[in-house]
Amino acid sequence: MTPRSGVVLDGRYELDERLAIGGMGEVWSATEIGSGERFAAKVMRPEFAGEKLFLDRIAAEARNSRNLEHPGIARTYDAGVVGGLGYLVMELVEGETLSQVLRRQGTLSPRTLLDVLAQTADALAAAHAAGVVHRDIKPGNLLLTAQGRVKLTDFGISIGENQAPMTDAGMVMGTAQYLPPEQAMGKPATGAGDVYALGIIAYEALAGRRPFTGATQVDIAFAHVTEPVPPLPTTVDAPLARLVEAMLEKDPADRPASAAVVAERARELLAELAAGTWDPARVRGAWPRPTRGAQHAPGRTGRHDGGAPAPAPAPERRSRRRAPSTARQVIVAVGIVVVAALVTLTILTLANLGTAAALAAAAVLPGPRVRSELPRRGWQHEADPSVLLTRREVL
């Protein structure tokens, strides 16, 4: 089967107009025969028909998203396989992605950003409470409606509680520009990683640029692990900057304890803006810390019980230029080198699906010395967006 206008999926959903196309599949508007109700249909590309990896991935997306009922999450209603092509039937959201908004506007106002943060964090809290880690939080997966609602989309590489991995040990799923440091090092994805990725979005929306760049996807992901977060513009007020800084801590245990905490703090700042009590120089106390081994246990999100410890006395605001300590740098570098020495890896980035992205970067990062030898040791960089970088041999 080739997706095209007029094709009917399982005798029920007629494809109308293609909305987006990417490396893994296509997104169509579709009409349910009989009811006339309109949906979005995500259909695998014909060249992947029958491919187990892609069929498993779309089945996992259906499992992880189908039971997530939250106003901030685009609903998944149905799923199936036709002619070897997996498909999902989802809520059709009228709006534009945050990435489109940022391309047009450059930045967001503090008020708009805090609203987006609060709504997105609410949606993430609901997913995490259901045992689902999104793993691909980025502007392209946040839809903004004309009514000001934010809809979280694309659970294509999400992982649920007790879900068996679909990639080899050491392979990392995510988009390099928004990849949490711990995932870049091959550690299990947790809800703290989604908080970090949302922090990258917040930084980008305030500064008009992402905090980490590089010539390749490996360079970008490596920067998440080893580089300090560049200072936000001095025009960003301290309370908002502190929230973003906390979300971007390298150690997951140093970030806000949950997405629910992020949503709560964002709404507090929104209320201060509305009431005129916003103090650009004031910094709140320490963030509630997650419990190690529970909040971020492998394969789980760690449910937040809603009880936050009393704030500590407000510390002086730390410099955003602070680099990791020497000891921390050594630990990080050694960890990366060990992972790189043990794992054969592939970076696989599939093109963005517009309103729904597919598989994204898969990577384990080599250490500084190894990285300098990559061209000689068999790495190649290709312009083809479907394969950005491949290592052909074990170092």
TrEMBL record:
UniProt-listed Pfam families: Pkinase
SMART domains, alphabetized: S_TKc (SM00220)
Gene3D superfamilies named among the record's database cross-references: Phosphorylase Kinase, domain 1 (3.30.200.20), Transferase(Phosphotransferase) domain 1 (1.10.510.10)
Disordered as annotated region, ranges: 282-324
Alphabetically ordered keywords of this record: ATP-binding, Kinase, Membrane, Nucleotide-binding, Serine/threonine-protein kinase, Transferase, Transmembrane, Transmembrane helix
Segment forming the signal sequence: none
Enzymatic class: transferase
Source superkingdom: Bacteria
Membrane spanning stretches: 327-347
EC number(s) from the headed UniProt entry: 2.7.11.1
Keyword Nucleus: no
InterPro entries tied to this protein: Kinase-like_dom_sf, Prot_kinase_dom, Ser/Thr_kinase_AS
Family annotation (SUPFAM superfamilies): Protein kinase-like (PK-like) (SSF56112)
Boundaries of every Protein kinase domain copy: 13-270
Gene Ontology MF, one: ATP binding
Protein name (Swiss-Prot/TrEMBL): non-specific serine/threonine protein kinase
